[in-house]
Amino acid sequence: MPAKEQRTLVLVKPDGLQRGLMGAIISRLEQRGLKPVAMKLILIDTALARRHYAAHEGKAFFPGLVQFITSSPVVAMVWQGKGAVEVVRQLMGATDPLKSAPGTLRGDYGLDIGRNLVHGSDSPEAAEREVALFFSQKEIVDWPRSVEPWITEP
Ligand code: DAT
Ligand code: MG
């Protein structure tokens, strides 16, 4: 991976799949110029959910959050590109869809903080931890993309 690029974990949450929005969500990441390097549909088990959301353990919403994220499949992905962590956070919008700007994924498709459609790592450190939680090294494909120089100046 080029030094100026980052990788980040993105989940299309159960509400995104149930509502038929995974394509719309993936399209926005693609259109921005980010490159997918790993992708799979999985049912998250309770152990993985608790590890993924360990920072929120003890909070009032934690049990509901674990219940929700394990209730139906998600699409787990790794997206790569310049500033990928921050770019995905911007594309997602604020945690609470009621406070997310129109034009963001949560601002366009969501109403409820407990049904906010998408997860993106909140820092490079979190991204490294979360990518390793969801994907083995072998599942991450470092493929060359011919359009790259038209997205990022070499
Ligand atoms: P984000 O997903 O924007 O990184 P977070 O890490 O603070 O937000 O919280 C993880 C998820 O937990 C969030 O996507 C939705 C849920 N959540 C957060 N705060 C909540 C609250 N006050 N009430 C209900 N659910 C909440
Ligand atoms: Mg978070």
Number of strands: 4
In CATH, what is the homologous superfamily of the domain at 5-40 and 77-139? Nucleoside diphosphate kinase-like domain
Supply the number of helical segments. Answer: 7
Average predicted local confidence, pLDDT: 98
- CATH class of the domain at 5-40 and 77-139, anyone? Alpha Beta
Helix content: 25-40%
Q: How is the main sheet built?
A: 4 strands, antiparallel
What proportion of the residues form beta strands (DSSP E)? 15-25%
Please tell me about this protein's structure.
The protein is an alpha+beta fold and 154 residues long. It has a domain at 5-40 and 77-139: Nucleoside diphosphate kinase-like domain (Alpha-Beta Plaits, 2-Layer Sandwich). The protein is built from 7 helices and 4 strands. A 4-stranded antiparallel sheet has the order 2-3-1-4. The structure holds 2'-deoxyadenosine-5'-diphosphate (DAT) and magnesium ion.
